[in-house]
Amino acid sequence: MTELSLEDATLWYDSRGDGTPLVFIHGGWQNGRAWTPQVERFDTTHRPITLDVRGHGNTGATDADEYSIDLFTDDLEALLDHLGLEAPVLCGLSLGSMVVQNYLDRHPDRAAGAILGGAVRSMPPVELPPGTKPLLSPMPALAASLSMSGPEATFRSMLTSIQAVTGRRWLSIDPEVRATTMEAVGEVDSAEYRKIFDALYRFDPPSLTHVETPTLVVHGDQEAPPVKRQGREIAAEVDDGACLELSESGHLVNQDRPSAFNEAAETFLEERARL
Questions:
Q1: What is the pLDDT of residues 17-28, one digit of tens each?
Q2: How far apart are CA 107 and CA 97, in angstroms?
Q3: What pTM was estimated for this model as a whole?
C-alpha cells in the first residue's frame, strides 16, 4: 500500500493495473480488503484503487476530533487529485456509498460512473420527525457499550438488533464473510468506532436529482427493507440510475455473491465504455 499525507492524517491506499480507474470505498468498520473479489477481477482490465478510510485499517486513528461523511469525501477528493484522476468510476459499499453520494452531489458530472453496494442514505434508514434525530441519538448508549464491551461486542449487538427487527440475516449469509468482517471490526479502536458511528448517524443525505453520473445500485435479497427502499430512491433520483437485487446475499453483497456482483459491474462498465 501507499501513503498519502494530509494535514491531519496519513491515508493509506493501494493502486493496481492500468486503464479506467475504479475507486473502491469500503463500509463502516471495514477496510479496503472488503473489495478483494473486485480488485482481483478487474486488476488486469482496469485500474482498481482501494483506500482505508480514516479510523479504519492501515490508516487507523487520525487527529480529527470528530468524523463526518463530508470529511471522508474531502479525503476522497484529495486522493483523486493526488492521483490525477478526472473521470473515475466510484464504487461505494454502505458507508462508502454515502461518501460516493456526497461526492456526486458536489461533482454531479465528474465521475464516469458509480456502483453502490448495500447503498444507504441515512442511519437509521427510516425517516424521523424533523428535529428529533439529535434527541434520539444512540451515542450515549454506544459509548457505554464500547467502554464495557469493546468494538466487536458492540457491533454484534447491533447485528442482533437488526436481525430481530427485520427477521433477515442482513450483514452476510456467508459465515466466512462474517468472520472476516468481525476481524476488521476488531482492528478498530473504540474511540475511532464512536467517531465513525457518529459520522454515519449525523449524515444528512443530499438530493441527487441534479446528478448526471450513471449509477448502479446493488442490494442483496437479505438486505433490510428500509435500506432497499433507500437504494431504489437513489437510483430513481439520479438522471441515469438502475437498481439490481441479487439473491442469496446480504448487506455485503459484493462479498456474498462476488461473481454475480462482478458480472453486473462488468456489464455496467462495458455500457459506459460504449457511450
A1: 999 999 999 999
A2: 15
A3: 0.96
